[in-house]
Amino acid sequence: MSPQAAAERREQSQAGSLRMLGQLKVAKALSGRGYSHRRFQPRWAHHRGTCDAREVVLARDGRGVRRNKYCHPVKGTWYSPYDGKVLKSEKLVDVDHVVPLAYAWRSGAKRWSQAKRRAFANDLTRPELKVVSHSINIAKGGKGPQSWRPPRRGYWCRYATSWISVKHHYRLFVTKREKKALINMLRTCR
Question: pTM to 2 decimals?
């Protein structure tokens, strides 16, 4: 792809994300009362044969991934875009929910059915599931972009567009501070 085509693609991505962000309801965060990881994901959902969503993402985002007969990765290399680490062991990676489950709960998912929350937690279609280093996933926790951003500034555009896309698809609302932080991150798309 030429540099000009790449620049045009970034501008379209930024404009589309700004448009979607403008369509999201702005509201105060709901209480975290009643939240439990198990309300979304008592376990990873199976998607392909014996492979669950986590295993599918590990295979999708890794290089040279080999799996055992139970679909569990036993070898591979993964790149963590949040911190730029190259990881050579499945034990060092996590599958991150771009919009954390606890954050989604406070953004409206608290009112969803169990089935919709489970679909959200195992969504392989939207940019919601991403392989990252275990350490960066722990640092991120359930925080939103107003209080946590990937340390690699070069990933802010992709992170913000992914966050907005997921929130837009699921009609989750944003807070004022969250919206401002996303707009600032989208400025790095240039």
Answer: 0.91
